[in-house]
Structures are given as structure tokens and as C-alpha cells.
Amino acid sequence: MSRDRDVPEDDAGLRVGPPVDHAVGMPATRSIARHTMRQMGAVRTARVLGRINQPHGFDCPGCAWPEPDHETGRPGFKHLEFCENGAKAVAEEATRRTVERDFFARHPVAELHQRSEHWLSQQGRLTEPMHLAPGADHYVPIAWEDAFALIADELRALDSPDEALFYTSGRTSNEAAFLYQLLVRCFGTNNLPDCSNMCHESSGSALVETIGIGKGSVTVNDLVAADLIIVAGQNPGTNHPRMLTTLEQAKEQGARIMTINPLPEAGLQRFDNPQRLRGLTGHGTPLTDLFLQLRLGGDLALFQALNRLLLDADAADPDAGIVDHAFLRDHCEGTEALRDHLADLSWPDVERATGLTRDQIDEALAMILPARRIVVCWAMGLTQHRDAVATIREVVNFLLLRGNIGRKGAGLCPVRGHSNVQGDRTMGIWEKPDPGFLDRQEATFGVPMPRAHGHDVVDSIRALRDGRARVLFAVGGNFASATPDTEVTEAALRRARLTVQVSTKLNRSHTVTGRQALILPTLGRTDRDLGPDGQPRFVTVEDSMSVVHASRGRLAPPSESLRSEVEIVAGLARALFGPDGGPGDGGGDGDGGGPRVGGGLREGVGLGEGGRRAAAAAAVPWEALAADYGRIRDRIEAVVPGFERFNERAAWPGGFVLPHGPRDARRFDTPSGRARLTVNALEPLECPPGRLLLQSLRSHDQYNTTVYGLDDRYRGISGGRRVVFVHPDDLAELGLADGQQVDLVSEWRDGRERRADGFRLVAYPTARGCAAAYYPETNPLVPLDSTARTSNTPTSKAIVVRLEP
């Protein structure tokens, strides 16, 4: 029997204290104990924590930071491999709390919609499929096969496959992601929006263009071997805490660390390693050697200034080896165009865009010049801006100029968020698929693959808003809360005929529904996954540095009704295409009169091809693939480069590393075969008088849209979340005071005001002219059409706002 968890939902208990200058240590240890004991109890906690990120254990459902020592071939890891937020993520999933049918009988959807994300997540694990019928107020139970039939009927009723959207979050396994994209393309569309569209899409866009692959070029060992590590627009202490251990190891090997960020972050100031005595006693390792407090959006100007200074220093002393001319000559193109462009760089523009003085930039240069091996790490602070792609291209320029790609201890390090978000893309979760991938998939399965590009997240919302999409099927994630322009997004979702959420726990997306809705509960990373023969199965994931390894859940699932994501995808495929190789409902001979599945009239594709696609899809052995994940891995091996002997290598302790041309052989799969230095226009962001640039960020008590609690220990916040951090001098100039209540109002060129009400001002040492507040509370302020050029990523780190008392 489920019961409602009584947790605070408002900010009545909000308290504000000073931020701290160190991270982890005993406070983190106590926090882990408090969260895990409350959710799992002592015995379950002991069983689970020792298996996180270990060989023959399970991959943490939190971030994608890699495990250490994957290159050494050692049979196991010597340390506990989880952080505070990872332990919270596991506790949330492995909780003993459950949400059953009586819960939904007590709570109408309209009431649930008024609850906070925190309250919803605290209710526990979902236990059986639930259906919200047209016009109904409550979800009610539905049998699995009836749920699949309902979805299949709605999909068949569409005029075109492109009227359906298939969303994916980063926690989906490689096996589930591969089978999911196969189902979607067998249906006849490339509408595969995913969470990458909102986070590192800008990184992928820039890296594919410049080095020929959309992944970072370093390993953990490269960071440890670096002379200089630049951490730009990233807060590892909250978002990727295990990275702090790697940074500590690098410092011990002599590396220096430069931090570029609008806010000082505790985790980058001092790391108190809880697996060392000195860390537990508060005598940790100072990390940052130079902190550049940058104005929001100023990273492009800063890296252009550094590149200009490197070129100037090289011209002044050609024999000093400042620029790697041999590397540029043998492996790159675009050097002269970049040199000519930067010769006209305006220093007033640089200072206005960055908020830094020339002396501060020169201090950074003085740290860079003696460093031969440099790694640049970044996250959302670089990717969620109008000029995000240009900024990351400029970071690539910075590393290419000195030959710092394809060299040990040097390279590009985009730090991914969710634990398999990179693997999802590798498995084909992308609205703009590579033609070669589609060719190999056609050859493997005999199913014609759609070639027209599909919708990303922003375009999916537009399609729902405009009536061009009518079904949303989401595997994981929290689409309604993770996306921008909340009012527009929620209205768009409510226009759908059907919304389907494959989930482990309740979230906002279960309360923002189409005409009818389904909740399909699934196994989590910690859950034991048994095959038809009763034997345990494992899945695989890819971390932020291209390492693929197995994940094996060990806990008994919270309900016998749960199915794995693979089984859910296969169940829908059977309902959609027909079981055992037979035709789907509607029959037909594949010549215009066959099933409507895959038979859209998009771009001249006639019903004949749609019928042939449906017939071929029916022949895919969906049931056999779902029964034995090794068979899925065999198909992945045939379709995805780098997965040779996949089943064998997946069983290796620590997994295996995927090939990476720039890192492994300085091979660049660009059209010219060379790495590209690029010219990027500098257009400083303008903020009108009396306004601030707002960035959204996470508290220390959340991961993405999942809120574990109402505290942010490092920033001095407890008991609430509706706060906005503003520099004391900016408060004085605006005539406002610390502790005052304000509404946030965003302004954009469409002339429409977007509001988020009831925030407490917190005087905080952020960059002048900038402010920060937590998401998803601030997502209503992000205009749907305010996106990064090229990548179409929402600009959640650069919102022009005014503060209304």
C-alpha cells in the first residue's frame, strides 16, 4: 500500500548563510548516510553502495564521469567509486517506497500537477502501467498488452509517421537505445529528440565540424598527465563530483588548474577527499590556481583573446615553440584565415564581453605559455548560449594551435551529464542520422530506413504546438520540466492525442498530458533483470570518455509488473508490426493497401515503400532480441563501428575503449581529412540598463530535474529553492536589497514577457551584471526560439531579466 510522503513543498523554511570554499569531506559523508538510510535502510544501503561503478556491479544512474584504471587491465577498482550525488541518485531509485494504484485513486492529475518536483519524486517507485483516459481525472491501471495496443492504434491512425515524436533520456542503456531507434525508423521517422539536444548538442556540432567526431579526445589518464587543466563553464563539485578525485591526482602530479566561471564554486576551490584522512579532517587539496570570473557568454571572447596572444607571442619569438607549426602543417587547415581574423580583434570588445581586464587575461597567458600539455574541460556553461558552437570551435582552435589534440596529457574534454547520454547517440539516437549508419542498418535488418532529418527537442515542441505532431513517446527523462518556455511547452503537450512516459518514478511529465496518457513503469539500473530462462541479464553503457562497460543490477525490482526498457520497446514493436513475423493489424500486401505503419507521404515516399518497410519490420525478431540482450549486441556490432567482438569485450572488467581518430592517430574524419581551425565572429551579448544576464543552474541537492532535497550546502542555501544570486553591487545599483522578494521577468526580441514569481534575492559573489537561479524553476523564462546557432540548444545560460519587487 502506498502512502503520501509528507515533504515540504514551499520555501517557508528557507534559510540563507554564507557559501563555503571547500567541497565533500565529512558533510558529504553525513549527507550520504542521511539520504541512503531514509530511502533504502541499513541492509539495502550496505548491499548497494559497494556495487556502484564497480566491475560486475551497476553503472551509477547519475553522471557520465568514467571509472579509473580502465586502461590498466586490472581486475577491479581499488576505491569506492561513488559521490554524494551519485549515492542520492541510487537511493532515489533503490528506495523501498512504492507508488501503487491506490495513490492514483486518491490524487487527480490536476492535484498532482500542483505538487513540486521534490514531492513527486519522494513518493517512490512506480509499480504498474497506468492509463489516463480521454476526459478522465485519474490514472487507472491498464494491462501491458492493452497499453501496447493503445499506442499502436494511435500510431497507425496518424497521417504520417512524422506526426510521432520519440524522446529519449541519457539513462537508457545501449541495448534499449539501439532497439528503440530501430523501432522508430522501422515505423518510418527520424523524430528522435533526446536530452543531448538540450545539453552537449553544441559540443557535438562544433567537434564534428572541426575534428570529425563529436566526442571528447581525452581519457582520465590524460587529465592526470596534463600540465594545465582549464575548467570552463563547469561545476564538478555538484554535477560531476568524482571528477574532483581526478583533478586531485593531476595536482599531485604537478598539474595546474585554471577555472573560468561566473560563480566561484566550492568544489574547484578545495577538495576534501572523503577516502583520505586529511580530507575527512578538513585538510584537503586546493585545486584552482587561477580563477577568471567571467561575464556570462564571455568565453568566446576570452579564447579569441588567448589565441591572438599566442599568435602574437609566436611571431615575436618564432624559435620558442609556442605554436606547433609542424602539427598545423601536417594535420590542419585554416591557420592563416584564423590569424588574419584575430589580427582585427577589438580589445574593448573583449573586455566588455568577458568582464575581465587585460592584466587578468595576461595572467592567464602566463600560465598557458609554459604548459606543453593542456586539457580543456567544459559543460553547460559553454553549450547553452547563442554562440555556444562558435565558442567550442574557438576552444578547438586554442588546442590545435599548440598541437594539443592527439597528444598524451592533452585534448578536449566535454563532460557529459547523464550516464549514457553519449552512448545513446552512438547507438543512433539522433534526429540527423549518419547515412552510413542507416546503410548498415538496412543491410542488417532488411528494413528501408527513412532518410529525411527529424525533429530535435525544440522543433518537437514547435511541432506539437502547431499541430504537426500528435503523439509523444518518451523513454525516461522529464520532458515537461527539462524543456524551455514552460507555458508554451505545457500547452503544446496538451495538444497531443497521446503522451507516453516510460519511467521509474513520478515527475512533472506525468501531470502534463495529451488527450490521453500512459505511464509505463520500467526497471532501473539497480534492479535485477531476469530473462525468460530466469537468468540475470546485463546491459552496457558508454561513459563521457568513450569507454563501454557492463551494468548489472542486483536488487529485486519493486514490483513483478515492471519490464525492462528493452522489453517495453519489443512489446510495442510486436503490437505495431505484428508478432512472430506476421503482419500488423490492418494486413495488406505492402503495395499501397498495407498497414499505415511507416506509410507516410513524406517527401514523395509513397505507400508502397511504407508497406514494404512495415512488412520488413514485422520480420525483425523482436521477441528473440528482447529475450537475449546478447543478440542485440550482435546487431550493434554489425551496425556501429568500434563494437567488434562486442559480447566478448562487454564482459571485460572495466569494459573497452571505442576508437577515436584524433586521439588515437591524429586522424581527422572531416571532408578534407584535416582538423579545421575556424573563424568565429565576436558579437558580445548586450544587456540593457537595469537588466541582468541570468543563468540557470543546479542546486547541490538535485540531478537534472530530480530534486533530492531543498538544500544547497555549498552556496549556503537550506530549506528552499526559489532564490536568485546577484552581486551586492548590482543589488545596490538596482535599488534592491539582500533578502527582498522579487519576480523574475525575462525579456526577448519577441516582445513577450515570461515570468517566474516569488524569488528571494541573495547577495552573492557572482560576476557583475550576472545572476543565477535554479532550474527547472527558471525554465519558464527561456524563450523557445532563443537557441544556439547551429545546434538549436536552448540558451539557458544567458537570459536577459529584470527583477520586479
Short description:
By secondary structure, the protein is an alpha/beta fold.
Please give a structural write-up.
With 805 residues, this protein is of the alpha/beta class. The protein contains 32 helices and 31 strands. A six-stranded mixed β-sheet has the order 6-5-18-17-16-7, sandwiched between helices. Strands 23-30-27-29-28-31 form a six-stranded mixed barrel. Strands 12-9-8-14-15 form a five-stranded parallel β-sheet, with helices on both faces. It is globular, with a radius of gyration of 26 Å.
Number of contiguous helices: 32
Low-confidence stretches: 70-78, 580-607
What is the C-alpha radius of gyration, as a whole number of Å? 26 Å
The side-by-side strand order for the widest beta sheet comes to 6-5-18-17-16-7
How does the SSE layout of this entry go?
Blueprint: E1 15-16, E2 23-24, H1 25-49, H2 84-93, E3 98-99, H3 101-106, H4 109-114, H5 117-122, E4 125-126, E5 130-132, E6 140-141, H6 144-156, E7 164-168, H7 174-187, H8 201-211, H9 220-225, E8 228-232, H10 236-239, H11 243-252, E9 256-261, H12 266-269, E10 270-272, H13 277-280, E11 285-286, E12 290-293, H14 299-316, H15 325-331, E13 332-333, H16 335-343, H17 347-354, H18 358-368, E14 374-378, H19 380-383, H20 388-401, E15 411-414, H21 421-426, H22 435-445, H23 457-465, E16 471-475, H24 479-482, H25 486-494, E17 498-503, E18 516-521, E19 539-542, E20 547-551, H26 565-577, H27 607-618, H28 622-627, H29 629-639, H30 646-650, E21 656-657, H31 661-665, E22 675-676, E23 692-697, E24 702-703, E25 706-707, E26 717-718, E27 723-726, H32 728-734, E28 741-746, E29 754-763, E30 770-774, E31 799-804
Parallel strand pairs: 2-10, 3-4, 7-16, 8-9, 8-14, 9-12, 13-22, 14-15, 16-17, 17-18, 23-30, 27-29
Antiparallel strand pairs: 1-26, 5-6, 5-18, 10-11, 19-20, 20-21, 23-31, 24-25, 27-30, 28-29, 28-31
